[in-house]
Specification:
By secondary structure, the chain is mostly helical. Helix content is about 80%, strand content about 0%. The protein is built from 14 helices and no strands. The two termini are about 30 Å apart. Belongs to the UppP family.
Length: about 270
């Protein structure tokens, strides 16, 4: 197989594996670009758009939830409206701040050392939060109070620093604000839909013309999309079961080890 398509498949696997785990998919894609020695800027838009494959995995796996909410909205059920409200409210801070700081965020995407340090600091933070958080009062997305949803939305913005992890920030933020583990994970999955759709739309508006003329075309994006979707379907099922039983500490230790290994490797280059 052509080396180009092997790279596409590898990046699709990395995206599918890491998008919903609290380990930072963007950070892993940046480190993968350094490890493989290719031009990260050439693949930057590809890395953003294939996230939609992972997002589609959430829609497919939780279609019953979305169907129930949709029917509830039509019937004007308060629970369904609170579910929708909470998703939209948590999304707004990332939309506003992301638009305002888009150019600065793009500059950070070429900083692998930032990723390495963010992995380590994030791992330590997860361990600390796991020890501190004992009480979980909210056991459904619709049950999370408005003010706490706003807090989760602003905490998600920390993931604009590559290596922080969008899912990790939202899950840990939700835990500190009293949300039960499984609900925190699922809220993070659902919140990824408007967030990643917005990021991909912005990237296409700014750089969509480069797809047909660049080294990474629509065929590569389609392949990466399919690979990330398949891998994400498998990962989401496994992840929810794992955190319900064992919490997030395994991911924290992985982040710390991966971050230290990345720093050592980058210092020897």
């Amino acid at each position: 197989m052509d080396l180009h398509y092997l790279t596409v498949i590898l990046l699709g696997i990395v995206e599918g594996l890491t998008e919903f785990l609290p380990v930072s998919s963007t950070g892993h894609l940046i480190l993968a670009s350094e490890l493989l020695g290719y031009d990260a800027s050439t693949w930057a838009m590809f890395n953003v758009i294939i996230q939609l494959g992972a997002i589609l995995a959430v829609v497919v796996l939780y279609w019953r939830t979305f169907w129930a909410v949709g029917m509830g909205l039509l019937r004007k059920e308060p629970t369904s409206w609170r579910f929708l409200r909470n998703l939209l409210v948590a999304f707004i801070p990332a939309a506003v701040i992301g638009l305002a700081l888009h150019n600065h965020i793009e500059e950070l995407l070429g900083a692998p050392r930032v990723v390495a340090w963010a992995l380590i600091v994030g791992g330590v933070a997860i361990l600390a939060i796991e020890r501190m958080v004992k009480e979980n009062r909210f056991h459904g997305i619709a049950d999370i109070p408005f003010v706490r949803v706003v807090g989760i939305g602003f905490i998600q913005c920390l993931a604009m620093i590559p290596g922080v992890s969008r899912s990790g920030a939202t899950i840990m933020g939700a835990l500190t604000l009293g949300v039960e583990r499984r609900t925190a994970a699922e809220f993070s999955f659902f919140l990824a839909i408007p967030t990643m759709l917005g990021a991909s739309a912005l990237e296409l508006l700014k750089n969509g013309d480069k797809i047909t003329s660049g080294a990474v075309g629509w065929d590569s994006i389609a392949l990466g999309f399919v690979v990330s979707f398949i891998v994400a379907v498998l990962v989401i099922k496994w992840f929810v079961g794992l955190v319900s039983r064992h919490g997030f500490a395994p991911f924290a230790w992985y982040r710390i080890v991966a971050g230290i290994a990345a720093l050592l490797w980058l210092s020897m280059r």
